Fold:
Amino acid sequence: MILVASRKSELARIQAEMAIAALSGAGMGERMQLRTVSTSGDSGKGPFNPAVGSFVDRINELVSSGEMDIGVHSMKDLPPELPAGLEISAVLERGSRFDCVLGPSMLARLPTGSTVGTSSARRRAQALHMRPDLKTVAVRGNVGTRASLVRPGGVDAVILAMAGLERLTFVPPEGYGLYPLPVDYFVPSAGQGAIAIVSRKGFIESEVARRASHPESRSEVEIERRILSLLSGGCNSPIGITAISFGRGYTVRIQKLSPDGRIEARITESIRSLDDAERVVSDFNAVEKVKFGD
Structure:
């Protein structure tokens, strides 16, 4: 029996079932069993902007120890460097990488002074950069909990990841809609929309797991995570990184903002492969120095 670990939320279970289906199709058969796990980020007792890795820590510990064989994660939750002995054995075909607004209108058309909920420092800074008049409030909980806050007497809108809503087949309440956010203002987190399968190095089924990987999605994510690592990963300022494949190359966007959204450094470049990541980061650092100073 191969034990597969995921978080307990409805979305996490859906993503784990997607991973199990992909692994089964790659040749792992019907020998998998899903086990759900609580992580430190699920406790609801920590800060609104949890530490990097808090939604994956316990699962990775169980995989490292051999108590679990495979961990399934939202890629954006994984820190750029995994614990020793673990590897990303597969990346499933990516869903939407973009953010969206759940509200009565698109973000640009919300009334002046509207209240927008998000627990993400990146999304908060991006929203304020686009609309300095907005009031942002921290919200926590799973996707359903955060979505339920959009109501008369609650917040006017919330910013959420489109991929999660699509996987949950979420239907907005009457009078509200889902409005995709422009990538020029809202560069997503590295890995957003992708599902990672993590296993121990040398795991007997690693080669089978690798066959479940979607090559294009994996290449994009590897570029994004490499850039994140080169930018020191746990950057305190809100940062978005995305690599979109086209033809024989990738369009890379990097965006960094001050927490209040007033200062922005951003670049868009075309690259051929992962080998170009250091050049892109060097170019971005030059722009960042001009915008943010030393």
User: Anything to note?
Assistant: The chain has eight helices and 13 strands. The CA atoms of residues 72 and 197 lie 5 Å apart. Residues 2-95+190-292 form a domain with the D-Maltodextrin-Binding Protein; domain 2 fold (CATH 3.40.190.10). The chain has a mean pLDDT of 92.
